[in-house]
Amino acid sequence: MTYQKPEGLPEKIQLFIDGEFVDAEGGATFDVIEPVSNEVYIQAASASKADVDRAVAAAKRAFDEGPWPHMLPRERSRILHRVADIVESRDDQLALIESWDSGLPITQAKGQARRAAENFRFFADLIVAEHDNVTKVPGRQINYVNRKPKGVAGLITPWNVPFMQESWKLAPAIATGNTVVLKPASYTPLSAALWPEIFREAGVPDGVFNLILGSGGVAGDALVKHPDVPLISFTGESRTG
Residue 5 and residue 43: Cα distance in Å, rounded? Predict the structure, then answer.
């Protein structure tokens, strides 16, 4: 197969905050390198601490005031299954973009796109199957488990198989009623920019998913240290924070 640039790529990869694609503060960008030629092929918005603050504020507002954490698990499950359907329907496109951005062989990239859909189906089914547990114990006491969403989840993913790794963190966080701020690896931000339209088409409310781009030392560090982010799922290097 000829290695060629996928059609329809954006002119620039932007941040996605509160349902809108936006530039970083001051229009800051960084170069994204295509791994085969080692040449710059696109610019991506480089988030500052202020941009991270904006994204977290949007996610917190969606959690505190929006419908997502209050939906019945079955309602969220239906939306997550739609996410999986959309990912599966676009596996060829996703594979081309993933291969271009990360250097994965196209066959492996397609398999990872399908695995991403499976991740969403797994957690969509799990939240319906899991229930609050009540256990009687001797005397007048009972033990119970009451599952509730926690708040804003900060998700930081690595450069290898990025789209699938993102799904592995996004699916459980969103399925359980949390809202998220995703920061993909700065080497491979392209496939992460596909999530906003996938979630919008599936019916995920604005603010539930937010995307920031940039270095681990700036954007990642600001995210993991943010006081309004009680949940962190991180795969990466130590300088992130």
Answer: 15
Q: Domain of 105?
A: 14-240
DSSP letter assigned to residue 239: G
5-to-8, 73, 92, 150 alpha-carbon distances in Å: 9, 40, 14, 41
- Give domain status of residue 8, yes or no: no
Q: What is the CATH number of the domain that holds 226?
A: 3.40.605.10
Domain presence at residue 4:
no
pLDDT digits (tens, 9 = 90+) for 6-59: 877 888 999 999 999 999 999 999 999 988 889 999 999 999 999 999 999 999
Number of domains in the chain: 1
Is 110 inside any structural domain? yes
| Spatial CB neighbours of 141, under 8 Å, sequence gap ≥ 6 | none
Residues 6+ apart with CB under 8 A from 154: 56, 180, 181, 183, 223, 224, 226, 229, 231, 232, 233, 234
- 5 part of a folded domain: no
Tokens of 193: 């920019």
Question: Which of 195, 94, 92 is closest to 102 using CA atoms?
Answer: 94
Query: Which residues, in sequence order, are CB contacts of 13 under 8 Å at separation 6+?
Result: 32, 42, 43, 44, 45, 189, 190, 193, 213
